[in-house]
Every structure is written in C-alpha cells, then in structure tokens.
C-alpha cells in the first residue's frame, strides 16, 4: 500500500503504521457506513427583541444566517403582539398589532409585524411564529405594562401586563385569526403552510400569569383561529422550560383527550411539540465551568415523556430554546459565569452539545426537527459585552462559525468512533469534568464530499496544550482528494482575540472594523491541499487546541 507524506503547518498525511503518541486522539470515520440523512436542526435561531430584526446590524446578521444553510433557516422571536411604539430595548419589543377604539372595537395594525416577517421572507427564512404576548387592551391586568429591565435587575421585573390572560378570549381568537389570514394574503398559502405557529413562551414560568387551565383555554382559542384562517397551517406548543415536563405532560393530555374550550369536542390540534433545554455554567475560583449535563438531561427528560405517547410517534419536536444557560441579555459584567460567550468555549460547547442532541433523538426514536439557538445580536450595545449573541456591533463572534461549519455538512451522517469522546451516558451522569477533554466528531458525506467536524471540549474554561489527533478515513473513492481544513481557535475565525489585541476599543476605526469583520468569518487553517486516497483510505494528523473546532472537508 503506497502513501504520500505531505508536511503542512500543524497537519500532515501519515504513513500507514506510523506510531501515534500515547495521548493521541484516534478518530475512525467510515464514510461507507451511513446512519441516515443529515437533519439541519442547527438552522434555527431566536431572540427576545423582535424590533432588532429590521435594524442595521439585525438585517446584516439575518442575511448571514440565511446563507448558513442550503435549507431554510427558521427564526423565533418574542413579543410579536405586544403593545408599544416599536422601539427595541433589552428583553422588550412591541409591534402595536392590536389596539381598541373608545368603544372597544379592535384596531389591527400589521405594519411592524410585516416589516419583521418581510425581513425573513426576503432572505428565504421561515418564521417559527410565536403567538404572544398579550396586547395591553386585551390584558386582564394591563398595568404596569411596559418594563425597563437592565442587566443586574431582578429577572421577575419583566413579567408585567403582557403576561396575563385575555379579558376576552373571543377577541383574542379573532386577533390570531386576523393575523394568520393577513399572513396568507401577504405571503401566499404555500409560504405560510411552511411555517410553524406556536403559542407563548414558558407558560410554566413567569411568562404566563394565568392558571394552567387558562393557558390550555388560550391554546384552544389560538389553534382554532389558526386553523380557521388556514386549515393546513401547523401549530404546536407549549415551549415549557427544560424542567417543565409536568406542565408539558398535562398540555399533551389536554390536546389528546380533554374537552376543547372552543369546539366542545375532544382534543385540540397539535402539529409540533416544543420545550426548552438549558445548561448551567458556574464561576469556580474565577474560572467558568459549564454544565452541559443539565441541558442534555432537559432534552432526555422531555424526549422520554413525548415518546411515551404512541399517538405522537413522528410528531415534529422543536427545542424552542437550546442553550448553555438561560438569560441572553445578562452580560458577563453582571453575570460573570457567562464569560464563556465571547471566545471559543461557546463554539466547542455548541459543537459537542449538538452532536449529543442527535444521539438523544436516536436513543428515544423521536423526530427532532429543530433546536433553536436563542442568540442573535444586541443593537448599539458595548463591544463584546458578554451577551449570548452571535455578533457584536455587526462583527461575527466565534460561535457563529460553528453554524457555518454545520452548514457544510450535507447528505447522510456516517459512522465515527473516537477514543477520546465521552459517551452520552458519561455526560448525562457527570458532564465533561474528567481529567481528559472531550475530543469528539460528527461526519457526513454526499456524492462528492465528506465533512468531518472535530471538537476539543471541556466544561472547564481552559485551552492548555494542543492535543494530537489522528483521523483515519475509510470508504471514500480512491484517487485524488482535496482537503479544505476550517478551524475555530484563538488564531482562526476569532474576532474576539483580534479585538483584544487592538486594546479592546469601544470605538473602532473603519480599518479596524474591516479587520474585525474579516476575522469574524470562517477561516481555513491553511491553503487547500491535494491528497491521494489509496484503496479508499486516508490518514490525517492535526493538533487541536482546547475549546477549538475543526471541519475537515474532503472533496473528490
């Protein structure tokens, strides 16, 4: 068997039988053993502040998100029915879609909602249209209505008049009907059929100030209105918190077996099931320690519940918020455990956790359709403030490049094995806290490419010395192969490190902005290289720093 030795910066083809270092991560990729089609569950994003959508940096980021994937990207935003002037603020947004005249007659105004959804549709994106929250004129306890929350304020301060049940369910139902009807008239039946509609957010928590039964009633009125406007529309719920399985169980039973508040018949439409899943980072001796276990356990608990209902087999499941922790607008100045967000730790956590979401879906035999990353951007805020966002002041952060990597994975997943990858059970039991890092992999191939993602993750925020990685590829066509190696680490695809090297400026020059903008894009570790596969096999070595992610794209 003949092999070629090619020496490259941090990467080279190894001769067959070359001895690896004792601590080398050995990864086997069998490209001929397919595990099923790639489902782009990563192409889903969301945020609290809907009015950022059509602002300068919001439009720029949405344009980039739409380009991540060959399939449509879904977007979920809060507060689409909230009363107000349309001005954005942290954890606040409004559209003024519903008001009433002096006689209590409805006044519908779709201008701001249209500007939000137009921004999505023009980019080929799809709304995960959240029906909520309560307009001031319909709220059963409208005052106080507008909140002025800031980082460091008690979180409970945000739950004001918009969180209460309607004083008139018929008016609420008519509002939902008119919204969906207007959407069909504006965008067309076929387009709106491709959306998902869902009611509210975390009704088991402070976002809903009514009873559980009142929420079920709200759902029945909402679902009936959606279906009346477009019978083929898809609606689901209940977007509970990760620990809200009891509420979700009661919601499912209501939709399957309870008397409908609108029709008087049994059951309510249920076209998708949604819940949230969050991790739990902590600050230990001045260092961030993540809690992936918590997030994955949230997912496992909810999958287990849903799979216990045979009549829900194959129903689309959407993790409506799936993140390392809870509050996107809580920066690291007020919440120092969130200091992971600017650098590569957010990237490696994202790669490692999404791979386990696929494992969990396979374990429970469920139809995981989407996992919403609840991160967007915060307009006109300090640079790299430590919000959970994808970009800061129009500059992409390292985590966004993981999604660019995912977007290059197409076709079918293939079998992979890594001797340094934590098992799913290990993470569910104790997270990634052992003496070694989690060097794991996810791979997919189509007719002419093989994409192999490799990450080097640990819950403790430490980079340390790079780990040697040996990647053995089997099952690709023999002959010439081109390798393009993308990397996220301190020196590649990392605007944060460049910004710090500039002196962490809060005002940047045009030249600095251009440099940061370029640094925020997905970058190659080196120039693409021609390789030679012999009998369908390749062996590649690389050094992978802690909290780094690589995507090795082989094409032929």
Distance between the termini: 20 Å
* Mean pLDDT score: 95
Q: Which stretches are poorly predicted, pLDDT < 50 over at least 5 residues?
A: 1-18
Number-wise, the strands total 26
Largest sheet: 12 strands, mixed
Outline: globular
| Number of continuous helical runs | 12
Can you offer a commentary on this structure?
- With 556 residues, the chain is an alpha/beta fold.
- The protein has 2 domains: 7-37 and 410-555, Sandwich (Immunoglobulin-like), CATH 2.60.40.1500; 44-407, Alpha-Beta Barrel (TIM Barrel).
- It has 12 helices and 26 strands.
- It has helices at 56-66, 111-121, 169-187, 189-193, 212-229, 245-257, 292-307, 344-364, 398-407, 424-430, 495-501, 510-519; strands at 7-8, 11-13, 25-37, 44-47, 74-77, 98-100, 106-108, 126-131, 196-199, 235-240, 272-278, 282-284, 287-289, 316-323, 367-371, 391-392, 395-396, 412-418, 438-445, 449-457, 467-474, 479-488, 523-524, 529-533, 537-544, 549-555.
- Strands 1, 2, 3, 18, 19, 20, 21, 22, 23, 24, 25 and 26 form a 12-stranded mixed β-sheet that branches. It has an 8-stranded parallel β-sheet with strand order 4-5-8-9-10-11-14-15, covered by helices on one side.
- Strand 9, helix 5 and strand 10 (235-240) form a beta-alpha-beta unit.
- Helix 7 runs parallel beside helix 8 (344-364), helix 8 (344-364) packs across helix 9 and helix 11 (495-501) packs antiparallel against helix 12.
- The model is unreliable at 1-18 (pLDDT under 50).
């Amino acid at each position: 068997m003949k092999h070629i030795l090619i020496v490259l910066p941090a990467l080279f083809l190894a001769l067959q039988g070359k001895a690896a270092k004792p601590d080398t991560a050995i990864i086997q990729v069998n490209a001929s053993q397919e595990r099923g089609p790639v489902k782009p569950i990563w192409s889903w994003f969301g945020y609290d502040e809907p009015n950022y959508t059509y602002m300068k940096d919001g439009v720029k980021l949405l344009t980039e998100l739409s380009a991540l994937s060959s399939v449509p990207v879904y977007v979920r935003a809060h507060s689409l029915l909230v009363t107000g002037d349309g001005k954005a603020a942290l954890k606040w947004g409004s559209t003024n879609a519903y008001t009433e005249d002096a006689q209590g007659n409805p006044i519908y105004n779709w201008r701001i909602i249209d500007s939000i959804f137009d921004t999505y549709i023009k980019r080929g994106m799809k709304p995960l249209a959240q029906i909520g929250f309560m307009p001031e004129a319909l709220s059963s306890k409208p005052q106080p209505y507008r909140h002025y929350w800031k980082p460091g304020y008690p979180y409970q301060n945000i739950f004001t008049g918009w969180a209460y049940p309607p004083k008139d369910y018929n008016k609420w139902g008519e509002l939902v009907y008119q919204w969906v009807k207007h959407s069909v008239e504006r965008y067309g039946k076929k387009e709106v059929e491709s959306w998902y509609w869902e009611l509210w957010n975390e009704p088991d928590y402070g976002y809903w100030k009514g009873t559980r039964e009142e929420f079920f009633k709200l759902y029945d009125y909402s679902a009936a209105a959606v279906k009346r406007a477009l019978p083929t529309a898809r609606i689901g719920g209940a977007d509970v918190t990760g620990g809200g399985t009891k509420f979700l169980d009661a919601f499912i039973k209501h939709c399957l077996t309870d008397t409908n508040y609108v029709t008087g018949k049994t059951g309510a439409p249920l076209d998708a099931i949604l819940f949230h899943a969050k991790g739990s980072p902590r600050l230990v001796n001045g260092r961030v320690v993540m809690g992936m276990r918590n997030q994955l356990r949230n997912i496992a608990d909810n999958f287990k519940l849903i799979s216990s209902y045979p009549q829900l087999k194959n129903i689309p499941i959407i993790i409506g918020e799936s993140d390392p922790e809870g509050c996107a607008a809580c920066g690291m100045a007020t919440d120092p455990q969130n200091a992971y967000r600017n650098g590569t730790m957010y990237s490696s956590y994202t790669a490692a956790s999404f791979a386990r979401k696929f494992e969990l879906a396979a374990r429970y035999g469920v139809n995981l359709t989407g996992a919403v990353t609840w991160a967007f951007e915060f307009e006109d805020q300090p640079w790299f403030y430590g919000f959970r966002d994808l970009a800061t002041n129009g500059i992409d952060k390292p985590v966004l490049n993981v999604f660019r990597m995912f977007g290059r994975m197409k076709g079918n997943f293939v079998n992979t094995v890594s001797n340094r990858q934590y098992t799913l059970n290990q993470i569910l039991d104790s997270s990634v806290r052992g003496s070694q890092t989690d060097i794991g992999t996810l791979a997919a191939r189509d007719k002419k490419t093989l994409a192999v993602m490799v990450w080097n993750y640990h819950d403790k925020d430490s980079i340390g010395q790079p780990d040697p990685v040996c990647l053995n590829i089997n099952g690709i066509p023999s002959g010439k192969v081109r390798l393009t190696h993308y990397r996220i680490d301190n020196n590649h695809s990392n605007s944060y490190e460049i910004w710090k090297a500039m002196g962490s400026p809060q005002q940047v020059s045009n030249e600095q902005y251009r440099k940061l903008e370029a640094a925020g894009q997905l970058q190659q570790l080196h120039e693409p290289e021609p390789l030679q596969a012999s009998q369908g096999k390749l062996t590649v070595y690389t050094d992978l720093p802690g909290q780094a992610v690589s995507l090795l794209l082989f094409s032929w």
